[in-house]
Amino acid sequence: MKVTRRYFSIHGNSRFTDDWINDMKVLFRLPHTHINSPSSLISVKGSSRNIAVDKMSKRRKAAVLVPICNRNGLASILFTVRTQTVSTHKGQVSFPGGHRNVIDGSTCVIETAVDCALRETYEELGSNIGNIRIIGECEEVPAVTGTLVTPVIGFIEEDVMNFEHFNPSLDEVDRVFTRSIDFLLDPSNCGKETYDNKVHGRVTMPVFYDKSSNGKEKIWGLTAFILRAVLDKAIVPTKPSDCGGTKVNR
User: Could you give the CA distance from residue 157 to residue 147 in angstroms, rounded to a whole number?
Assistant: First the structure.
């Protein structure tokens, strides 16, 4: 179908609306209740729970939520900064998420990527953030640790305002911040950097800057890689042409 609704006003007011969210879901064909086939997974003992592992590659399975939201009426994406006490990626900007749990060890049935992303988000940010409407799942991507990560895009229905109603986990979350869609799409706020990767050697990845944070809220690594894909494949294609986007035929 041809998307013609105006999600962003001609004055540049980039607020997410119900129409925008509902039409974005058309981009995602995968069922939201997908559970991996038991034959493709095994379970391993984690520190406090059984963690799902892909049987063929022996890689752990995880999911993250890409939380799109309105902040004071402005379409945005929410990020967390990890504490210095977490086991990996200390002090880095990330999306809420974690390893997928095994629900039934006898059959190796694991929680869905959606269930994992929602569980981890509420654990990290608190249940007071309100309802999260699932838009769709993205393709699985490998983290530098080898974990296979499924990004899940979800819309926080209540305006996050200034996070007064949030109750972040003191163990996992140092702080919470957002970046507006307009900011993230501004070419002056993003670029590319090259890193040494243990698996793939030298790789070039997207990066998003914010000079006002003195580098403390730099979005890079897997988080930036996922963010770039969400912007390019979900946000930009549905942005109307009269607001700098393109109409999409589906």
Answer: 30
